[in-house]
Design goal:
The chain is an all-beta fold and 199 residues long. It has no helices and 19 strands. The strands form 4 sheets. The chain has a 6-stranded antiparallel β-sheet, with no helix packed on it. A 5-stranded antiparallel β-sheet has the order 1-17-14-19-12, with no helix packed on it. It is globular and about 50 Å long. The mean pLDDT is 94. InterPro entries: RmlC-like_jellyroll, RmlC_Cupin_sf, Uncharacterised_HutD/Ves. This is HutD-family protein.
Length: 199
């Protein structure tokens, strides 16, 4: 289990030096940017910038602050990031982010597709989900505050998740429930499985 607030994590330059990132979690804990199985980070984009390239990595990016950002791919495609709408792409792709308005923050899940797979879901209302006990789950709060309850075979636990809090549960969860405590709260939920991606 890991619980950290993004504001308390030191910022470092991107791999290519064109932006700043705060690493919330990485596996294995001793991994570097060239050998992780999965990694979670928050990036600050203050100006138009090229993304770093990551071979064999699947990326899921989600805008958590700011109105929008446009991802321009070297094959001519583009995608507009909107708040709390996860978007998946491959780390080998050459991507440039352009900002129509002001600076933005985004949350990144990166996974070595040869060794892990996963997804990120957006929630804005109370719900309860059944969990795969072989997967790990993490939560991130872009806005507001949440009441979280988890259940495994041994116990039931309760958590409070505030603005930009990150909370990771290792494999064993059976059930996960969440309820917003203030209006406008949003929540991102990821499921990560070890093993090669089927995508």
């Amino acid at each position: 289990m890991k619980h950290v607030n993004a504001a308390q994590v030191p910022a470092h330059l991107w791999k290519n030096g064109r932006g700043r990132t705060r690493e919330l979690d990485i596996y294995p804990e001793s991994a570097e940017l060239d050998n992780f199985i999965w990694r979670v980070s928050v990036a600050d984009i203050d100006e138009d910038a090229d993304f770093s390239e990551f071979n064999n990595i699947d990326r899921i990016i989600t805008l958590i602050q700011g109105e929008s950002a446009i991802l321009q791919f070297d094959n001519g495609h583009h995608h507009t990031l909107e708040p709390c709408r996860p978007f998946r792409f491959q780390g080998e792709q050459k991507v440039r982010a352009t900002l129509p308005h002001v600076s933005v923050k985004d949350l990144n899940l990166m996974m070595d597709r040869r060794r892990a797979s996963g997804c990120v879901l957006f929630q804005c209302e109370a719900a309860e989900i059944s969990c795969d006990p072989e997967s790990l789950y993490w939560l991130f709060c872009p806005n507001g505050r949440w009441h979280i309850k988890t259940q495994n075979a041994q116990s039931t636990d309760v958590w409070e998740l505030g603005l930009h809090d990150y909370l990771r549960f290792d494999p064993s969860l059976i059930r996960l429930s969440f309820k917003p405590e203030v209006t406008g709260s949003t929540l991102l939920i990821a499921q990560v499985q070890h093993g090669a991606s089927a995508l």
